[in-house]
Design brief:
With 193 residues, the protein is an all-alpha fold. The protein has one domain. Helices cover 78% and strands 0% of the residues. The longest helix is centred in the middle third of the chain and has 25 residues. It starts with a helix and ends with a helix. The mean pLDDT is 91.
Amino acid sequence: MMADVLLPALLVAAGYLLGSISTAIIACRLLGRPDPRSGGSRNPGATNVMRLAGRDAALITLAGDMLKGVVPVIAARMISDDPVIWMLTGFAAFAGHLFPLFFGFRGGKGVATALGVLLALSPLVGALTIATWLVTFAIARISAVSALVSFLLAPVWVVLVLPSLAVTALVGLMSALLFWRHRANVSALLQRR
């Protein structure tokens, strides 16, 4: 009985700690580039890193942030056969990215990490989310709009592929937090209309 509680708790804690590692800040330090929190949108994510530090740092950031979502969920899948535990672990990694313990709880917006979580949770859900992003970007040409539309539809893809109320609720909560982190982008987009 103790193991039934302890194992998920350990997975969630490990997911949060891994998510708390800021790929953007570490990549920029290692490459001798400006701290992404010091300019542009001040967001430690791939888009701002691209503006401030160049393509190589942005690609490292993107890959690292996605892996922060993929690795904990794959680890949870290897240890447990419960999709709710997989998603709780992934959600913890996503929360760590947004509110990183190691960087004063000032993290990124979470798009790449959330996408990594979805890819590891279900490759089909991840592929549908990526396809949504690509189609939206082809139309709108705005990264933030593509991310918002993709994660607005992510819970729908989960319902169709993994019909679990708990998993869908967690993906919906992750999407809601992603929208909240993009609130400045949403406000700017509404003002442009």
